[in-house]
Amino acid sequence: MSEDKIKILERALEREKAARKQAEKILENKSVELYELANQLKATNSQLEEILSEKTSELKGVFENIVDAYVMMDLWGNVLKMNEAAKDLLGYDIDKEEFNLLNLVHKKDLEYTAKAFQQLYKKGSFTDYQARVITKEKEVKLVHVNSSIIYNKYGKAIAAQGIVRDITRETQDREIFERQKRQLDIIVENSPLGIVLTSNGTIIKSNKTFQRFLGYSGNELKGKKVKELTFHLDSEETRNNMNSVDAGKVEGFAIKKRYLRKDNSVFDAKTTVSVLKNSRGTVEYQVAMIEDITQQIANEKQKEQLLLNLERSNEELKNYAHIVSHDLKSPLRSIEALISWLKEDYGEAFDNKGLEYVQMLEDKIENMDHLIDGILKYSSINAEDMHKENVDVHEILEDIIDTIYIPEHVEVKIVGEMPQLRADRTRMYQLFQNIISNGVNYIESKKGLVEVACENEKNHWLFSIRDNGVGIPKEYHNKVFKIFQSFGSYNKSSGIGLSIVKKIIDVYQGRIWLESEENKGTTFFIKLKKEMV
Amino acid sequence: MSLQILLIEDDMIEVMKFNRVISGLDFRHKIVEARNGEEALELLEKKDKLPDIILLDLNMPKMNGIEFLRILKNDEVLKFIPTIILTTSNNRADILECFKIGIAGYVIKPLKYEDYVSKITSVLEYWNNNELSGI
């Protein structure tokens, strides 16, 4: 071997040594790296294990402590797992017996349930499932379920889970609430009163009646200011009332006010406003009840008008009576004067028969004069012209006895006490004068007696005027009080006296009637209220 | 002594009645007749010979008694003439209105002539004793 060759070989060996050294070095480094990595992995792994165990126990806790029922089932509805709440809800316990959820579903909800399952498989979840289930105790419960599919790591569906909520009670409550609301709505909507709920002067709700009153729809009214609907002349009163309500002075008020309809016509209404306060005592809402008083006002106006007409025609009648009485009396007076002059100037030309005729003429004229006076008196009796004064009946009776003509054979007696009345003196005088005159005039017996008495009843005075005169036949008992119904032959009778009596008693809302026996006498009874109107 | 009397009356027989009463009296009263208020005002317009008293009927055609009375009482001179109402009307409203405007008496014509005579006689006797000349 040549030197050269040796040298070459030696150098090659050197290079090889150096390369190996380098390789060893790299290997050593890699080993260290690997070691460190392995350590790191180990740490991470144990960390992961820790987290996993944490999560598992967490989940377990959630599963056990969840308030809502939780059920896990296979894809055919067989229950795999359930929590305590689910056991309580369904009455079944998977740890004791196997069961299938689909068997619990109310048969009427089966079809819906089938569809729900289809969707669950297809989309992976189904929310707001609502159906009736029958528990082990045969109770029907309405449940609400949100469910989802559980997949394995290869993405294959293996089970389904659901959170079940018992909404039986909740639904019942809601139904009761809805029913009550409907009932309330029926009342509100069918009320003949317009009803409006407002807050700060803005309409929140109104019923149909109110909408009909004003010609707006419910939506049009919503959000409208009450002010816009109020007839401008009225608003100040309302405002004043509203202010005192706001100030807590009153809980509500009632006023008559006018509203503007959609067509700008004015609508008369009575409005009652009540205030609803919140727990802090500040006004939250106002409820207004609106009553249509258009008709009422029209009626009142009509009544006023009628009353006015009545007053006017009463007045006219009174004037008319005066005019008629004047027009009738004037010629009567002239005839009287002419007859007097005939007697004065030509009296000697008459024989006895002629003078008798003249006397009869004069009597008839006097009769006619009484009649006219009677009509005038009758027509001027009316409630408005009556005074209220203290009237001593005894005094009046004595006055009458002193004044009227009483024949020699007749005596008028006041029997017992007479009351004090609050009434119109002139009318009371007319009343007793006419009835006593009537009694006095119809007495034909030798010794005539007219007795006036009075009984003190609880609320009334009962006067009786008894005579021993000719009596009144039964068929006339009612007629005597009617005008122009004098049945007697006594020539001073105008037939109006008792009509005047009746009219005065009518004004005082009293009563008059009579008892009579022919040829024995008549008793008139007059019942007057102690509290006269 | 005798009175100058203005009688305002539309009814002929009433006028006759009045004249007949006067003619039966001792005093020679002078009567001037007017058949209604307008005629009376014409007579009074002259003012040189004014009556001592006026007897006035209320119910008359044309101007009625109350209208006449109002005009009379608004006149500065004529308002002093005593005016006595002689009427059929016992309507309270009429009576009150007359007294309100200003009258010297209110006499209601009675039905009977003899009552009329005594009433008129006493009225005239009363005014005959009153001093009222020189208005």
From TrEMBL, chain A:
GO MF term set: phosphorelay sensor kinase activity
InterPro entries (alphabetical): HATPase_C_sf, HATPase_dom, His_kinase_dom, HisK_dim/P_dom, HisK_dim/P_sf, PAC, PAS, PAS-assoc_C
UniProt superkingdom: Bacteria
Keywords: Coiled coil, Kinase, Phosphoprotein, Transferase
Domain Histidine kinase: 323-532
UniProt KW Kinase keyword: yes
First-level EC class: transferase
Domain PAC: 127-179, 253-305
Coiled-coil annotated spans: 6-58
UniProt-listed Enzyme Commission number(s): 2.7.13.3
Span of domain PAS: 55-124, 195-249
Catalytic reaction annotation: ATP + protein L-histidine = ADP + protein N-phospho-L-histidine
A matching Pfam family: PAS_3
PANTHER family to which the protein is assigned, alphabetical: PAC DOMAIN-CONTAINING PROTEIN, PHYTOCHROME-LIKE PROTEIN CPH1
Name of the protein in question: histidine kinase
Species classification: Bacteria, Pseudomonadati, Bacteroidota, Flavobacteriia, Flavobacteriales
TrEMBL record, chain B:
InterPro entries documented for this protein: CheY-like_superfamily, Sig_transdc_resp-reg_receiver, TCS_response_regulator
Keyword field: Phosphoprotein
Alphabetized SUPFAM superfamilies for the sequence: CheY-like (SSF52172)
A Pfam family hit: Response_reg
Residues annotated as domain Response regulatory: 4-124
Modified residues (4-aspartylphosphate): D57
One record GO biological process: phosphorelay signal transduction system
Protein name as it appears in the record: Response regulator
Gene source species: Leptobacterium flavescens
Lineage of source species: Bacteria, Pseudomonadati, Bacteroidota, Flavobacteriia, Flavobacteriales
